[in-house]
Amino acid sequence: MPSNSVPDQFTGWASKGKGQALEPWSYTPKPFEPTDVDIKISHCGVCGSDVHTLDSGWGPTTYPVIVGHEIVGEVIRVGSEVKDLKVGQRVGVGARSGSCNQCEECLRDEENYCSGKATGTYNATYADGSRSQGGYADYIRVPSHWVFPVPEHLDSDAAASLFCAGITTYLPLRAAGVGPDTTVGVVGIGGLGHLGLQWARALDAKKVVAISHSDRKREDAEKLGATEFLALSDVDSVKDANRTLDVMLVAASGSRTNWSDLLSLMRTGGRIMLVGLPEEPLSGIPPMTLASRRIAMIGSLIGSPKDTMEMLQVAADKGVRVWYERRPMSKVNRVLEEFRDGKARYRYVLEN
Fold this sequence. Notes:
- This protein is an alpha/beta fold.
- The chain has two domains: about 10-165 and about 305-350, Quinone Oxidoreductase, Chain A, domain 1; about 165-300, Rossmann fold (3-Layer(aba) Sandwich).
- It is about 25% helix and about 25% strand.
- The protein is built from eleven helices and 19 strands.
């Protein structure tokens, strides 16, 4: 088959039920529309969202499902109404692959919060009823509005995780107004947090504080741009850091999160940006501390097409780089085992 021809069926690594290993599975993609693009996938990052979906952790998953929404590949077909992409171009796709483009959110360039018909890149349904399937696969078909050129100076494997982890951590820091007068704390030095530290530096934050349970990742944090390190297990250091942060990016949280300690770090009027989303509801947040210091806790979900293009350019210009391990797509089950065991430093990228 010529490199730029498109098969009738796409093949990927699918889960056919909760707790089941992924196996090769072929499916018929959504009908090709004038605004669509077909992409031959070269790389796909592994995201925590993939595991949540495979496990039905955030709600019921419709199986079979092919996950993966940190996708890079080559355009092999463009619809007649696609104006800004061409065959042979290197592009990426993130966690969203459809929006109504008519609701108030879409019309103000916040398509990531579309209140009409929003479609996730996998485990979702397009307007015609077709199921969306993700990037642990050979090809993908998506509306061109959610397909982005990869900057020349970013390698494909290095760029993949930017399309979810990158934009997830960039947008809330930019939205919080991080700049030369801002002290930023990043909670959780992992797949999201290691990028959060870099974005804070790229946005010229005055100080960047890496916050973790122990000292284990101190050296990595310094290499990633942290100017200070705070171990939450050090009670005296936590007390000394009272009222020192303007913005906190919470890149990891769960049932053991000590919100009293974290809120104690915030200055009056501080903003806590939540991007590490556990499966269970947040608990243990002291409302009086929120009120007495006028602290805002704000959620954030990926980014719009405009935000994503901006993020990619900042990464290229400022040298923000994902720390990742590249593995063959065929080894996906082994990679997922390691991911669940917490062995990633700090992302995995699958390669066809």
